[in-house]
Amino acid sequence: MNICVVGTGYVGLVTGAVFADLGNDVVCVDNIAEKIEMLKRGEMPIYEPGLKEMVVHNMNDGRLFFTTDLSEGVVRSEVIFIAVGTPPKENGETDLSQVEEVARGIARAIDRYKIIVNKSTVPVGTGDLVREIIECNKRRHVDFDVVSNPEFLREGSAIQDTLVPDRIVIGAPSQTVAMTLLELYASLERPMIITDVHSAEIIKYASNAFLATKISFINTIADLCEQAGADVTQVAKGMGFDKRIGPQFLTPGLGFGGSCFPKDVDSLIHTLTNRGINADLLKSVMTINKMRARHFVEIMKSKLDTLTGKTFGMLGLAFKQNTDDIRDAKSLDIIDLLYEANATVKAYDPVAIDNSRKVRPEVIYCKNSYEAVEDVDALLIVTEWNEFKFLNMEKIKSLLKKPVIFDGRNLYQQDRMKRLGFEYYSIGR
Ligand code: UGA
Predict the structure, then answer these.
(1) pTM for this predicted structure
(2) What phi and psi, each to the nearest 5 degrees, are found at residue 259?
(3) Cα–Cα distance measured from residue 122 to residue 293, given in angstroms and rounded to the nearest whole number
(4) I want to staple 133 with a disulfide (CB 3.0 to 4.6 A). Which of 32, 98, 103, 111 is the partner?
């Protein structure tokens, strides 16, 4: 099938690469010329395991193209995916200006029947909006359909999530339209949900908000465990065996970050409030999440008496492992709180330093974990990178001024840390 994917961010680029890998002819469009030039040279604008190999391989085989020309992409394709950014506005509402712009571009270029698919996370009703924009701006008498096909990939495991998704959701105006999309995904042999456009749009927000709720829930239980002398790891394990609850997204820590959960929960709160529906549950999920970094820094302060004049070695800047993304990362909140308290931060992350340096130039960036902990007052674990799990702890101990660790991701066994002579603080244990 001839496919066009508009937007070469996480969702667009991974979707385009995977569709090409499945044998389709794919053209990826972006209005940022430097990004397209980079991609044509086989350089990735984001860090995502396995992505570069897949893009380069499919480009070399002639199935994957990059262009800044939206009309070219529209004309040569049967199905057009909109995968552009949907950032939040100040009030939490989703900014749909990029989606609207693309819809106008499609309207100008559309020359025969096409299916337009919303893949970006967009509030319920956006399918109708895209339909209306194309209808009002099209220059030829052609028919088209608008479908919602939300994406559930996670950064860091995006390729695997796209190739082996838990489910594929297709919200289409008719069975015939749904069949075309179904055909595109058939070779993945995954569960498919064919539904109407509005339901598909809500499925995406409901899923992200529910997962975010699980995280804030377990973080609340972690606070209780901390006070009651219990172990939240055991509690989560005990809960997770119940099939109705499940073990995933019950890892306590510094809270959820990234470009999806915080913005999507805020957007859903905005949608609910606008429609006069009580949004207190989700407002609490956000409030609890916002307090996590402060709670962590308060624990540090209570154990060290003061933060003023101290230096901390921070391991991890990315919002989670296997990504260089620092959008809404907890590291940023912690850095701000520590500098507010007149402390200094030395930091290391395997891939997110360049991004972090742009927004937090005051931090001292280090080449590796050991350099970051040299002569500092305590080690802070902020991102759950695998390489932090297997550090030489004897060496760490010898480099630290005092053997103190504040672990925001519960990476280590308490007994072992105690045996090694560390003063070790973790979350909810
Ligand atoms: C999330 C969803 O998991 C994807 O299904 C969805 O497609 C994506 O948003 C999106 O809407 O585009 P992502 O933001 O890449 O994916 O990352 P997650 O792995 O979901 O983690 C989100 C945050 O929650 C991270 O900060 C992570 O550290 C935190 N988290 C996750 C926890 O604190 N505890 C957990 O148990 C799980």
Answers:
(1) 0.96
(2) -90, 5
(3) 28
(4) 103
Give the tens place of pLDDT for each residue, 285-298: 999 999 999 999 99
H helix or E strand, kind and range, residue 295: helix 280-304
Residues marked as catalytic: 260
For residue 421, give the H/E element and its range: none
Q: Please enumerate in sequence order all residues whose Cβ is within 8 A of that of 332, keeping only pairs 6 or more positions apart, or say none.
A: 326, 356, 359, 360
Joined tokens for residue 158? 């995006």
Question: What are the pLDDT digits (tens) for 300-345?
Answer: 999 999 999 999 999 999 999 999 999 999 999 999 999 999 999 9
Could you report the per-residue pLDDT of 79-120, keeping only the tens digit for each? 999 999 999 999 999 999 999 999 999 999 999 999 999 999
Q: Which of 70, 65, 68 is nearest to 55 (CA)?
A: 65
The residue among 416, 90, 87, 411 whose CA lies nearest residue 254 is: 411
Strands 364-365 and 344-348: parallel
Q: List the beta bridge partners of residue 425.
A: 406
* Cross-strand bridge partners of residue 406: 380, 425
Q: Whose CA is nearest to atom 8 of ligand 1?
A: 154
Distance 314 CA to ligand 1 centre (A): 21
352 closest CA partner among 314, 318, 386: 318
Q: Could you tell me the sign of the dihedral formed by the alpha carbons of 250, 92, 121, 244, in that order?
A: positive
Residue 165 makes CB contacts below 8 A (sequence gap 6+) with 152, 153, 188, 190
- Ligand 1 site residues (CB inside 6 A) read 121, 151-155, 208, 211, 215, 249-251, 253, 256-258, 260-261, 264, 319-320
Nearest protein Cα to ligand 1, atom 17: 154
Among residues 5, 9, 46, 7, the alpha carbon closest in space to that of 25 is found at 5
Integer distance in angstroms from the first to the last C-alpha of the chain? Answer: 53
